[in-house]
Amino acid sequence: MLFETMHPVYGFVPVYGDAPAAPVVPEPAAPVEPAAPVEPIVPEPETITLEEHSKLLQEAKTEAIQQQVTTIASLEKRQGLTKNERDVLAKQKEELTKQLLTKEELAIENETKLRTDYEEKLAGLETERNEWQTRYTEETVNRSIIDEASKAEAYNPSQFVALLRPMSTMTQNESGKFDIRVSYPATKDGKPIELDLSVEEAIAKMSEAKEYLNLFKANAAGGLGGTNKGSGISVDIHEIAKDPAKYREWKKRQSGKSNG
């Protein structure tokens, strides 16, 4: 079979044989659409509630305060700190420690402090009241003794305070009136007893007792004062009267001498 083919130099030339198969021209590929851009996966931000946020802030604050408290505690252990420096550190630590307390704990602490302050103030008032009461009692009893001794014409009325004050008490009756009573030592059937007397009655008893004759002007004027001046009773009685037990013993001995 004769057919023509294209020669690169001579152009178309006849050729015998089977004709070559026509070249297969591939069909153009369909245009490929560009892929859509892939967006990067960004994790969503973690969200917290307002309560959780407040809790985190409180925890951070608590940790910072605890560190400050620890630092102050270390400073307090240093040698050579003055009292003022220690007071300042203690005040700072106290204020920081309060910040660590919850509202409930802080309320309890404030209530405790108020109660303690009240009790201390009350105790102070009671102490002051007792001091004034004691002072009033002393002055009232002493004045009563001096006044009654003056009425009985004692040489030295103040001397009777040492004699009668240890055995005197002042009480308040139902009507609110104060009454001074003296537990005056005496003897009955040879046995020691105590008489419940007023200050006036007690001094009257003393003016009749031999051991006290030299303490009263009236007795001295009657010539009885010289009887006891040499005994030294008026000189030693101050010391004896300070101890009620010694005074009773002394009074017992004096009564024995009188009976003898």
Low-confidence stretches: 221-235
- Could you estimate the helical fraction of the residues in percent? 55-70%
Q: What pattern of helices and strands is seen along the backbone?
A: EEHHHHEEEHHHHH
Instruction: Give the overall average pLDDT.
Output: 78
| Strand segment count | 5
The strand line-up of the biggest sheet is 3-4-5
Strand content: 5-15%
Largest sheet features: 3 strands, antiparallel
Number of helices: 9
Distance between the termini: 194 Å
Gyration radius, rounded:
58 Å
Q: Could you say which overall geometry the principal axes of the C-alpha atoms support?
A: rod-shaped
Structural class: alpha+beta
Explain the overall architecture.
The chain has 260 residues and is α+β, with helices and mostly antiparallel strands. It has a domain at 133-259. Helices cover 55% and strands 14% of the residues. It has 9 helices and 5 strands; from the N terminus they run E-E-H-H-H-H-E-E-E-H-H-H-H-H. It has helices at 50-76, 83-99, 103-151, 159-164, 199-208, 217-221, 225-229, 233-241, 244-259, and strands at residues 2-7, 11-16, 168-172, 178-188, 191-198. Strands 3-4-5 form a 3-stranded antiparallel β-sheet. Strands 1-2 form a two-stranded antiparallel sheet. The model is unreliable at 221-235 (pLDDT under 50).
